[in-house]
Amino acid sequence: MKKYILLLIISFSPCLKAQGLDTTAFHIVKPKVGLINYPIDKTTLPEIIRAFGNNYEKNEEFVVKKSKKLPDFYEVEYKSQGISFYFFDNDSTQAIKAVKFYKPFKAKTTTNIILNQSNFRKVLKKDKNSKMVISTSDQYSKVSVDAFRLTTTGISFSAQLSHFNKLPSKELLKNVVIDEIYISNYQYQISLD
Fold first, then answer.
1. How far is it, in rounded angstroms, from Cα 162 to Cα 138?
2. Average pLDDT of the residues in 89-104
3. How far apart, in whole angstroms, are the C-alpha atoms of residue 128 and residue 119?
4. Would you say 83 and 101 are in contact if contact means Cβ atoms under 8 Å apart?
5. Rg of the chain in Å (alpha carbons)
6. According to DSSP H, which parts of the chain are helical?
7. Whole-angstrom Cα distance, residue 58 to residue 46?
8. Has residue 163 got a pLDDT over 80?
9. What 8-state DSSP symbol labels residue 95?
């Protein structure tokens, strides 16, 4: 009898822990959707926690307040997996409104842009209407493509720049490798900073 009980415990124990995602395999991400199995606007925060586990940080410093009429926007970070989810704090459904992918996550878009491998030149070549945006501050510089058109494209690519005394030319910046993919279909522009 003890052998049967032990066999049942071994058989069902994987069901008890969170699934998470295999960070060694590539996952296809789609504009305005994110991950196929966890689409934005259809997946809730409790579903994300069940799937990815409790090893997350709710980043309350990342609150986007565009005006007094709009609710607070919070980030739930799974840093070790390289994925963050965003939701409105006052939304009773807790639907995920956006998702961001970064290292070590392995993401590939439907247009074959690969996170941490493809450069901005490839993104700009895939969509002739894309434009690069360069933002700088005292702490860092950032290059992004389509951040300003996020509401129409549903996807944005960006990279943090460091170790520059002055910003390289736009032509050189096209060779920078993308280190973040941000996906949203929410109605207003959300800052990536």
1. 11
2. 91
3. 15
4. yes
5. 19
6. 2-16, 45-52, 120-126, 150-153, 170-173
7. 13
8. no
9. B
What tokens appear for 24 in the block?
Answer: 């060694």
Asked whether the predicted pLDDT for residue 15 surpasses 70, the reply is no
**Predicted structure pTM score:** 0.81
Residue at 78: amino acid letter: Y
On the question of pLDDT at 48 being above 50, the answer is: yes
The answer to whether the CB of 183 falls within 8 A of the CB of 32 is yes
At 48, the amino acid letter reads I
Structural domains of the chain sorted by starting position, each given as residue range(s) with its CATH number in brackets: 19-184 (2.60.460)
Structure tokens at 42: 């259809």
Amino acid at 94: Q
Q: Encoding tokens for residue 61?
A: 């410093």
What's the pLDDT tens digit per position in 50-80?
A: 999 999 998 865 555 444 555 677 899 999 9
| Tokens encoding 2 | 């003890």
